[in-house]
Amino acid sequence: MAEDEDETGFEEELDDGSGGVDVGHGRRKRLFSKELRCMMYGFGDDQNPYTESVDILEDLVIEFITEMTHKAMSIGRQGRVQVEDIVFLIRKDPRKFARVKDLLTMNEELKRARKAFDEANYGS
């Protein structure tokens, strides 16, 4: 019985299109509110921005992530998201492409640095 209720709630969430995780009584668990508040402050907003502003931005972020994930799942290997699929989707947006390229390069550099650090400390 409890499983049926969970499944129904999940379907409503998908049909809703609003993105967030439903925690009951019309409220959703906010996944990125702390990070968005910090980003908003960094870009010149008040240190404590309006909750409504943060909620709208979070809805936009979740909608973007959801759309990109669905698109990435439909290309390449069906039902699976890979880095190459995301890169393919954003290839025509120079700013996003450059940022993703920088982040992927930095990730590789961090992996190499961690490996070198572990080898130096543990002698593997």
From TrEMBL:
It holds the Pfam family TFIID-18kDa. InterPro entries: TFIID_TAF13. GO terms for biological process: transcription by RNA polymerase II. One of its GO terms (cellular component) is transcription factor TFIID complex. Keywords: Nucleus, Transcription, Transcription regulation. The TFIID basal transcription factor complex plays a major role in the initiation of RNA polymerase II (Pol II)-dependent transcription. TFIID recognizes and binds promoters via its subunit TBP, a TATA-box-binding protein, and promotes assembly of the pre-initiation complex (PIC). The TFIID complex consists of TBP and TBP-associated factors (TAFs), including TAF1, TAF2, TAF3, TAF4, TAF5, TAF6, TAF7, TAF8, TAF9, TAF10, TAF11, TAF12 and TAF13. TAF13, together with TAF11 and TBP, play key roles during promoter binding by the TFIID and TFIIA transcription factor complexes. Component of the TFIID basal transcription factor complex, composed of TATA-box-binding protein TBP, and a number of TBP-associated factors (TAFs), including TAF1, TAF2, TAF3, TAF4, TAF5, TAF6, TAF7, TAF8, TAF9, TAF10, TAF11, TAF12 and TAF13. Interacts with TBP, and more strongly with TAF10 and TAF11. Belongs to the TAF13 family. PANTHER family: TRANSCRIPTION INITIATION FACTOR TFIID SUBUNIT 13 (PTHR11380:SF5), TRANSCRIPTION INITIATION FACTOR TFIID/SUPT3-RELATED (PTHR11380). This is Transcription initiation factor TFIID subunit 13. It comes from Solea senegalensis (Senegalese sole). The lineage of its organism: Eukaryota, Metazoa, Chordata, Craniata, Vertebrata.
